[in-house]
Q: What sequence folds into this?
């Protein structure tokens, strides 16, 4: 299915990386559901830019299954078509500030559990999408990961552990859903210049990463979003269970 024929839901699309991903899909002609929890203004502004026939702003906490179901029902009613493509981008509240992170001797299980909420969100959205994907015989699930578990330049224990679990879920779901024509993949970035989550990162950290990267610069949210388009496109129809690292060549995996 061409991207222009797809109905895409992007979670956490009201700000930062999610907004860039939503814009990338809209730029390719897709109909896009911009899911948000708090950031209504930016999502609705993008709807105004592309028109209501192409975009829908839908509030909902994706860690709560009932709210996810309402988002999917609203999308089908609005576009007259089930969601075909799920981008699991929403991130439990987190700030990439290495100086303020909880270290190994002090981090609490509550902090770990908070980040595991992202895994719950992915399970909710993926399960909510399955009936519609079966109906059309096509589905794309694309999860947002991180290169920090290959290269923990800053050891964010809670965030990194949750993303490692998400990679495992990506690969097991790929096996389970492959016979239905549904692919499940992950795109993993490093520090992005600049998303809302990385706004607290000191400039010296950006400089260090740029110096260590073959491209000698830090990846942008727009560049990261390009890889999302690949996994949604016909060009990736035989690719599933994969983790593509998009960080300018910093991590080799």
A:
């Amino acid at each position: 299915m061409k991207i222009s024929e797809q109905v895409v839901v992007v979670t956490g699309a009201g700000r930062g990386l999610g907004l860039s991903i939503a814009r990338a899909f809209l730029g390719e002609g897709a109909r896009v559901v911009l899911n948000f929890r708090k950031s209504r203004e930016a999502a609705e502004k993008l709807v105004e830019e592309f028109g209501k026939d192409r975009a829908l702003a839908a509030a909902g906490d994706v860690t709560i299954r009932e709210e996810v179901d309402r988002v999917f029902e609203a999308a089908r009613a609005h576009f007259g078509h089930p969601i075909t493509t799920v981008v699991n981008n929403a991130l439990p509240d987190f700030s990439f500030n290495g100086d303020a992170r909880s270290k190994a001797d002090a981090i609490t299980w509550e902090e770990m559990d908070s980040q595991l909420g992202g895994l719950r969100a992915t399970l909710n959205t993926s399960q909510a999408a399955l009936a519609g994907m079966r109906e059309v015989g096509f589905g794309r699930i694309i999860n947002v990961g991180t290169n920090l578990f290959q290269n923990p330049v800053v050891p964010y224990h809670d965030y990194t552990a949750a993303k490692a679990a998400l990679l495992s879920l990506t690969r097991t779901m790929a096996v389970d859903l492959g016979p239905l024509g549904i692919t499940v993949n992950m795109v993993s970035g490093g520090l992005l210049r600049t998303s809302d989550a990385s706004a607290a990162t000191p400039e010296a950290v950006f400089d260090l990463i740029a110096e260590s990267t073959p491209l000698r610069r830090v990846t942008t949210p727009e560049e990261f979003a390009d890889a999302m388009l690949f996994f949604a496109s016909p060009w990736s129809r035989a690719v599933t269970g994969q983790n593509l690292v998009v960080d300018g060549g910093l991590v080799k995996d």
Remarks:
- The chain has one domain: 3-246.
- Residues 3-246 form a domain with the Rossmann fold fold (CATH 3.40.50.720).
- The first helix runs from residue 16 to 27.
- Strands lie at 7-10, 31-36, 55-59, 85-88, 139-146, 182-189, 243-246.
